[in-house]
């Protein structure tokens, strides 16, 4: 197996059994583990009888730790980076040190492993594979509403905390009252819950159930809006070719079995 200077190692997001054999082996073999919270990581290490020492590395001391980590690696030792749960650098610390290590020529690799976004999406049926992950939503109500309003043509995925989830869903409902959403909480744990429904029903459900654990949410894109945008692009293309609104409505209705009057009305409104 090829040796690297620095290993990015995902850890379980709930169920300890989800750690990989390679992750356990790597954490045992390296000389030092950089972790967010040593108390959290130590529980994982104890469970798998991993004796490797840890050093704290979190978003508040990333820059301070750079020189120490560089010294360890320059001495020929190996290091691993873990977060409290899931994959480092995905809404977790690590970007600063990875950039520095690449600038200094150290070899880096990442192990595959647990990720809450993929765990949710692998259980949710979608029309296509495209989605946009934005980490956490903005803090302010105005910015949240702006983000929701601008994402109607894409499946939008984000993390949310238990104390903010209901306010966030109400903000989504205000902008897109009939939208379908998927939420996952307590993923991989005993009380894992995946819900896919209209937003009003999701809100009603959460109002009757105590919210525990971090949420992963996907807002489904507006399929009708996407279809109208695609139809508009086809109309515009034919208009550039010099076809009249009447001709366009005949052509597109024949090709795509779309209502001729609908096409004609859109074409009239989109004449260039």
Task: Describe it.
- With 272 residues, the protein is of the alpha/beta class.
- The protein folds into three domains: 6-114, Cobalt-precorrin-4 Transmethylase, domain 1; 117-138 and 157-221, Tetrapyrrole methylase, C-terminal domain (Methyltransferase, Cobalt-precorrin-4 Transmethylase, Domain 2, 2-Layer Sandwich); 224-269.
- 43% of the residues lie in helices and 16% in strands.
- The strands form two sheets. Strands 3-2-4-1-5 form a five-stranded parallel β-sheet, with helices on both faces. Strands 6-7-10-8-9 form a five-stranded mixed β-sheet.
- Helix 3 (62-74) crosses helix 4, helix 6 packs across helix 7 and helix 9 crosses helix 10 (245-256).
- The longest helix has 18 residues, at 223-240.
- The chain is elongated, with a radius of gyration of 25 Å.
- The model has no long low-confidence stretch (mean pLDDT 91).
Question: Tags for this entry?
Answer:
272 residues, alpha/beta, Cobalt-precorrin-4 Transmethylase, domain 1, Methyltransferase, Cobalt-precorrin-4 Transmethylase, Domain 2, 3 domains, 5-stranded parallel β-sheet, 5-stranded mixed β-sheet, 11 helices, 10 strands, 16% strand
